[in-house]
């Protein structure tokens, strides 16, 4: 599962939100990087020994406790059987068990608590001197690559001095060696070692010093964990190489020395250059020197040849040739560019010419004239059709009017009787009682009459010589209809 890292923006600021897994992983990394491999002493409790072969327990003292895990590969190296309540000293790495988020120690080595006091004193002195900067690599001096004389500070009767002399003889037999005798075990050993170191510095006859003794228990190596000896080593004007005990042994003298060797023999290997190696190195350096000379000669020859070629290139005739060639190239490129330009211009011009011809006024006028002729013909035909339709409509209207006209009725012998006083048409005898003056309109002209009573038929008739008078004036005849014409 990948860590969840989400950025939220609140009030213009972003927040990096950790997932639990990411936080646990980063805390584990920080713990592992912040603490070196360290020694811790305490009492075992809650000891668990599952079938996997690992050991899980709690290491505690009167003030605190911490979970510990020792895996099977390290447990197999134990020389005793751990039990609850037992005082032990462990060498462990600080870490975090991520699934539960528990702070724990991963134990690489464990020993019974008999040496615990010495180990705790060692750790306290180590922390004190480290805080003062006595272990800083920047303050340590480099060893001379070819020492003129080597000094040995060790017991003159121990096995370590024999190993040192044997290795120095094998490495470089011509290298002079001076032994500064000292006790390497017991209560007087720190003072003896300090005195031997002071004597070597006072005589200043060696280029490097080896401080050595063979292996032993923590009590046996206690002299090399002395604070005064550590400060004397740092104060020495001659570089000091420590070769104390075996590879797994670590002393304060190892930490303050300019170089630490895992064993006395290894210290001699560090200090004395190998004669065979020197011989091989001289041979290799000779070959490298000859090689370098050959390379320099080749380089000088190449530089001379390059200079000659450069001079030939800088000759006026060569420059003129280059300029002439460049001029030919420019002319060819110019001709090619002009051709390309003309081709592109023609390709752009052809559509414009076609559009110009298509937009010519003469062609447009011709099209408009043709269109005008067509419209004129259509207008003439439409005019004729409209005139004929109007004539037919007029004839039908005249015929209808003539059919409905009262004049046509009058022409068939009918008359229209009206009363002159109100021009009212007489439709009923009651509308014209006897003695009523009426006008009778005929097809041609008008008659004026007075209505009289007729006893025989009970109707109103005109009688007497003055009963009916003919008007001298006539109405003009109505114009003939187009159909009569």
Descriptive account of the structure:
The protein is an alpha/beta fold. Among the domains are: 35-111, Nucleic acid-binding proteins (OB fold (Dihydrolipoamide Acetyltransferase, E2P)); 133-137 and 146-273, Rossmann fold; 275-321; 407-470, no CATH class. 45% of the residues lie in helices and 21% in strands. It is built from 12 helices and 19 strands. It has helices at 20-34, 72-75, 116-132, 159-171, 189-203, 227-235, 252-256, 264-271, 275-314, 316-358, 361-404, 406-411; strands at 6-10, 13-17, 38-48, 55-60, 65-70, 87-97, 102-112, 150-154, 177-181, 208-213, 240-244, 259-260, 416-419, 424-425, 437-441, 446-450, 452-453, 460-461, 468-470. The two termini are 116 Å apart. Residues 1-6 and 455-485 have low confidence and may be disordered. One of its GO terms (molecular function) is nucleic acid binding. It catalyses: Exonucleolytic cleavage in either 5'- to 3'- or 3'- to 5'-direction to yield nucleoside 5'-phosphates. It comes from Thiorhodococcus drewsii AZ1. Belongs to the XseA family.
Which helices and strands appear, and what pairs or packs with what?
Layout: E1 6-10, E2 13-17, H1 20-34, E3 38-48, E4 55-60, E5 65-70, H2 72-75, E6 87-97, E7 102-112, H3 116-132, E8 150-154, H4 159-171, E9 177-181, H5 189-203, E10 208-213, H6 227-235, E11 240-244, H7 252-256, E12 259-260, H8 264-271, H9 275-314, H10 316-358, H11 361-404, H12 406-411, E13 416-419, E14 424-425, E15 437-441, E16 446-450, E17 452-453, E18 460-461, E19 468-470
Helix pairs in contact: 4-8, 5-6
